[in-house]
Amino acid sequence: MPEAPGRLLVVSDLHLSEGWDSDTKRLFKSEDFFFDHSFGRFLQAQDAKSRAEGHRLRLIIPGDFVDFLQVKTTPPESVQVMEGEFITSREQRFGLGTGPAMTCWKLRKLMDGHWRFFQALASFLVAGHDLVILPGNHDIEWIMPEVQGCFRAELVKYAPPGAGTGIGQQVRFLPWFYYEPDFLYIDHGHQYDALNSFDVFLHPYLPDGRIDLPAGSFFVRYLFNFLELDYPFADNMKPTARFLRWTLRHPRTWRAFPVYWSFFRETLAKAKPWDAQWRAHVEARQREVLPPWRSSSPSHRPASRGSGPCGRPRRSMPSEGFNWRCLSFGRPALRVDSRRSRDKSIGSSGSVMYFSGTPTRRICR
Questions:
Q1: 4, 183 contact by CB (below 8 A)
Q2: What are the phi and psi torsion angles at 179 (to 5°)?
Q3: What is the pLDDT of residue 289?
Q4: Model confidence pLDDT, tens digit, residues 222-254
Q5: In what side-by-side order are the strands of the sheet with 130-134?
Q6: How far apart are CA 102 and CA 87, in angstroms?
Q7: Which residues contact 71 (CB under 8 A, 6 or more apart)?
Q8: pTM check: above 0.85
Q9: Which of 150, 142, 147 is nearest to 174 (CA)?
Q10: How far is Cα 355 from Cα 339, in angstroms, rounded to an integer?
Q11: Contact predicate 289/201, CB 8 Å
Q12: Whose CA is closest to 361, among 342, 343, 337?
């Protein structure tokens, strides 16, 4: 990683999916991110400001950068195998699985649909800045080395001609959180949500190499993606129970009964208990990931459900005499929250900021 930057930019929960269809020139119905141009202008403005002030930038995207769950397009039926991963009829219907080869195919698909976004991101790295990516519950596949390598290789293709060599070295993937001692802690926050947390977050694999999806991701993949075809605004209705009550009053919902039945069957198949031997294996692999973090992390164990960062009780940790911004590119438009406050409990150690998000809210602290 390059030397420490002068400024940090934190942008979370972009949820890039398939973007623009190259055939119809229209957005896919499952797409939730419409701000490719705005994001490009944002990076250009930050780059110009950093040049004027004489410092580098680090862009941190703490989870749900992309939404692998909502990439439903699949290869032609003539393609039956992808680098040893067989495409089943189930995956032809619900979208490709979570194996490395299939995830890389989905990554190329969504990058192609958001070419302007990734052109801007590649130009940002060419300018000398760097990027840190953390996994969220909708893009947990970032933990796979194959997916990380695929992203670095594909990103070079979006750089200005002859200028992309080496930008992959300016991209860093972290498995859990970003931490600057006595200054900043950032994670995605899904491990504090019972529906969206992984049982073994740092090694969430099934015996066949696929990801063991939590209940929330399972719901998106096998039910919500179909509902969103008829109700593209579905994930804008909060709470979710409100949307479900609303749909029950419309005949179109009942015509989709086969979809609900299919989801019920998938749920029953997932509900079987863990194999004790495999559970012990993945927990042991998780412990192998933890030691490198012990010297720099505020806790030695993955966060428990319903707790604050690193398993601690939630508390407000505002900055002391420090102007900061939490930038969120979300619906319906770009939102910028700026806050400034003091916390006497911090003492003289400097500024301390805690960023923690959830799949449905952006929390700035």
A1: no
A2: -140, 125
A3: 76
A4: 777 777 766 776 666 667 677 777 777 776 666
A5: 7-10, 57-62, 130-134, 171-173
A6: 9
A7: 17, 18, 30, 95, 96, 106, 109, 110
A8: no
A9: 142
A10: 13
A11: no
A12: 337
